[in-house]
Amino acid sequence: MGLRLSSVLSIVLAAAAMIGPARAQMPAPGSATGPMPNTGPVYIITYFEVGDAATKPTADALRQYAAATRKEDGNTGFVALEEIARPARFATVEVWRDKPALEAHGAAVAALRDKLQPSFASPFDIRTNAGLSVAGPGIGSEPGGGNPVYVLTHVDVFPAGKDQTIELLKQLAEASRKEAGNLRFDVLQQDGRANHLPLLEAWRDAPAQSAHAMAEHTRAFRAKLVPLQGALYDERLYMKLQ
Asked: Buried b / exposed e across 172-188, counting CB within 10 Å, b at 16+?
């Protein structure tokens, strides 16, 4: 009996030893993999792709959707984008006063999705974000005419490097806003994935964006970011659907 009890106790102690470290590794609320509170404006980035034959009707549908969305209560910014290198890939960036305003917009999103469904090569990929460093006019109402270039970049770093990356991005944003051709440079943080840090940029034209890519502060940032990255630096250039 004593031997049997000793065996049972050994099993229990071994199980407890395994559970302890597992609990220690669980993400805490607000950590890089846990939910992130979002009490301010809500920034929504949506990516999707259609077949080549559907490019023009999709662009037309997005223009109508943009015009209607800007009139909704609680919307404080909206821009519809078409990728320059691959015109069948689109994105929208929306800003809402708060989550209730965003939720009220849900039916309009569903209607657009259903309308475009037959043309999808890849469906809506919707990312909810909070603003970390945002400045300037409302999204979509940047000053200047001509042919501005919008840039959406998905920065994904290892959780341990999140705080360092945020500081690097804030420094980059401050320096980039001082460039002659910059219209916007915002740093966001994805809800629920705090180590995912989208960037939204707008530049006066293609030469201004190219000059930024080779600016000393941009190159220094990219060099410091490489060892922190959890995925490739995903940068996409777009034109605004007027």
From this structure: bbebbbebebbbbbbbb
Specify the amino acid at residue 119: S
Q: What is the CATH number of the domain that holds 233?
A: 3.30.70.100
3-state SS class at 230: coil
Instruction: Give the sign of the dihedral formed by CA 100, CA 126, CA 71, CA 199.
Output: positive
Residue 69 lies in a domain: yes
Residue 98 vs residues 10, 74, 205: alpha-carbon distances, Å: 54, 7, 32
Half-sphere exposure of 54 (CA within 13 A, CB side): 17
Q: Is 13 part of any domain?
A: no
Residue-level pLDDT at 144? 72
User: Does any domain span residue 115?
Assistant: yes
The pLDDT tens digits of the residues spanning 138-175 come to 999 888 778 899 999 999 999 999 999 999 999 999 99
For the chain, the C-alpha Rg in angstroms (whole number) is: 22
**Range(s) of the domain holding residue 230:** 42-240
In a domain, 107, yes or no: yes
